[in-house]
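Revision sheet: structure tokens.
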Amino acid sequence: MTFHFSIAATDGSARAAVFATPHGSVETPAFMPVGTLATVKALDPDDLVQMGASMILGNAYHLHLRPGDEVVREMGGLHKFMRWDRPILTDSGGFQVFSLAQLRTVNEDGVEFQSHIDGSSRFFTPETVMQIERNLGADVIMQFDHVIPGQADEASARDASERSVRWLARCLAEVKRLESGNEQALFPIVQGGIHANLRREAAAAIRGMHDWPGFGIGGLSVGEEKDAMYEMLDVVDEALPRTHPRYLMGVGFPEDLIEGIRRGVDLFDCVAPTRMGRNGAAFTRDGRLNIKRTEFRTDPRPLDPECDCSACTRFSRAYIRHLFVSDEILGLRLLSLHNVHFLLSLVAQARAAIRNGDLEQWSRDWLARHRSASPLAV
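Predicted:
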């Protein structure tokens, strides 16, 4: 089965579409829960299916370090290893190398770094990362790229962006060399920081290299201002073909999903829903809620009265707060479940609004409520 992107409806730059992969189809716009280490923290794959998740993400850096990508391959690949039979995307680990690794050294060949787990010396090149991602066996694999802080100056951003394009050519050559019947879609990554000219140059260079099945948009939500991120999404929306899926990497707060969808983004991922859930924070339509606050000690309401997740339909704020202050694991699970469900539900609402042709009105109303009513914000 080939990868295919079929657009069913548009509303401005936003699209409601279907992205077909060897492990099934993904209705877009879609949020991909992050299973960094072959698990979405605190959640069972059955939970994800029941919530409507169609595609999840794993991370090449983390899985290479533990348990080892060759172990995953020996166990039948990531799908069999974690018992997830729907599509998977693996991040190349570029972001993790530059954010977690110690004493990293970048040169044209690749990146030498020390593992954040045991300090052992490792060396990632575009070729070795493609081999790691082939071992993991995800449907969509990302190129190895050079990631820099969001507010990097133009010279640094150009250096990283142009190196990422050169590394992309090596990734493509290695994927072609490794082809052995396993169908994987290699996505390039458009870098360029917050500099519009660099984003346009990167997009043009990438488009001229190959007929890609989709495109990644990287180097955003890494310290730059929100308005700068949205501006870059506008630039990339114009610079990339509208016939292919776009994946905005590492972005997943509710307002950013909506703003990204309005600017032509199809796929999102972020660790925020589970990370925040483990720390007592819940997404709601009325802003972010900190369940550990004392005013919820006897609150009989659900986390979000309009949410139909299993946490909100069964449990009160008072009970979930009790679990947190008592250090009960169920509290972490319930908030993680709610937050992931919340984002999956949000993109489903956006898909419906695009099909109905009223995305702009829906998004304005949703964002106005969300941004104006946050008295219990974390």
